[in-house]
């Protein structure tokens, strides 16, 4: 009994800590896009901005303790279903857009059009599936994760199955993108114009960074899917404390993962973050994420 109580306490602290980290990471991306007009000119950065909005709201919901006997628990459960699925759909959309840019050389203008359509389709699918859960499930307060979630076997099909379809499709696109980038990189190395050579290298770095989206999906949803599937198919089995702890630690972290990839690993984003917090860097200290041909093409349109 002491072990279970201790494990659940650790579980709760990890869930809260992970949610706070994700919320902070998401807010950093959001603030950088809102504060600096030149920062949000990059089309791909706008996509991460949209993804971060969903991550921020979801992280905030994870921080609110669920109450089994109140209507808020039901609201929280359905909201997490909707907000939890949207980042997966948007991440797949980003993978598709990156693939079209890398392999098909689509312009920013064409990518914008398909991006808007994919976003609308994602919202419609998430809304339909969330509405489908109403009346077919009960809201349950899981003490090992602090927040309310929807219980029922159909959740495998209405939620986790589609998330993993998005994840697997994104991974396949990731592999195709990496192969194409390697091919393009070999051709770039043969170029003699140093300016064009550097610009194309910078573009590849942007594309490579965007292609890592499915990796954060795997880190976020792998343990959660295993745990929920276990609870659905083996409802009478004892709680696995290790699985609960890993679930609490990883499930809320997508906003944090995105911040690490798209801010911490970008010198231009770090420069803007430093400028936001304390001081301004010289104008000539720029990163490929600011001076890419994507930005230049967007300005020409």
What does it look like?
The chain is mainly alpha-helical. The chain has one domain: Rhodopsin 7-helix transmembrane proteins (Rhopdopsin 7-helix transmembrane proteins), CATH 1.20.1070. Helices cover 75% and strands 3% of the residues. The protein has eleven helices and two strands. The chain has a two-stranded antiparallel sheet with strand order 1-2. The radius of gyration is 21 Å and the shape is globular. The protein starts with a helix and ends with a helix. 39% of the residues are buried. Mean pLDDT is 79; it is low at 1-7 and 282-301.
Rg, rounded, reads: 21 Å
- Secondary-structure content class: mainly alpha
Q: How far is the N terminus from the C terminus?
A: 65 Å
CATH superfamily: Rhodopsin 7-helix transmembrane proteins
Helix fraction, binned, reads over 70%
Average predicted confidence as pLDDT: 79
Briefly summarize what is shown.
The chain contains eleven helices and two strands. By secondary structure, it is an all-alpha fold.
Structural features:
G protein-coupled receptor, 301 residues, disordered N terminus, disordered C terminus, transmembrane, single chain, two-stranded antiparallel ribbon, membrane, Rhopdopsin 7-helix transmembrane proteins, mainly alpha
């Amino acid at each position: 009994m002491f072990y279970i109580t201790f494990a659940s306490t650790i579980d709760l602290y990890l869930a809260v800590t992970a949610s706070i980290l994700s919320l902070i990471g998401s807010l950093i991306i959001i603030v950088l896009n809102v504060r600096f007009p030149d920062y949000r000119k990059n089309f791909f950065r706008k996509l991460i901005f949209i993804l971060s909005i969903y991550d921020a709201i979801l992280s905030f919901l994870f921080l609110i303790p669920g109450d089994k006997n109140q209507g808020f628990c039901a609201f929280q459960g359905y909201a997490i279903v909707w907000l939890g699925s949207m980042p997966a759909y948007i991440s797949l959309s980003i993978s598709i857009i990156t693939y079209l840019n890398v392999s098909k050389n689509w312009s920013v203008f064409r990518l914008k059009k398909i991006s808007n359509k994919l976003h609308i389709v994602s919202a419609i699918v998430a809304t339909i599936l969330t509405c489908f859960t109403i009346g077919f499930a009960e809201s349950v307060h899981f003490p090992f994760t602090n927040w309310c979630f929807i219980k029922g076997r159909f959740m495998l099909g209405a939620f986790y199955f589609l998330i993993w379809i998005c994840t697997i499709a994104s991974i396949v696109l990731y592999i195709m993108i990496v192969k194409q980038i390697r091919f393009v990189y070999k051709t770039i190395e043969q170029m003699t114009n140093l300016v064009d050579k550097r610009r194309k290298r910078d573009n590849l770095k942007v594309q490579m960074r965007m292609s890592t989206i499915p990796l954060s999906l795997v880190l976020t949803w792998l343990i959660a899917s295993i745990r929920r599937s276990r609870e659905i198919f083996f409802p009478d089995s004892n709680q696995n404390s290790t699985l609960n702890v890993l679930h609490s630690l990883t499930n809320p972290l997508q906003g944090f993962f995105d911040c690490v990839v798209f801010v911490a690993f970008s010198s231009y984003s770090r420069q803007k973050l430093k400028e936001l917090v304390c001081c301004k860097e010289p104008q000539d200290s720029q990163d490929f994420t600011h001076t890419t041909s994507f930005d230049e093409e967007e300005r020409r349109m």
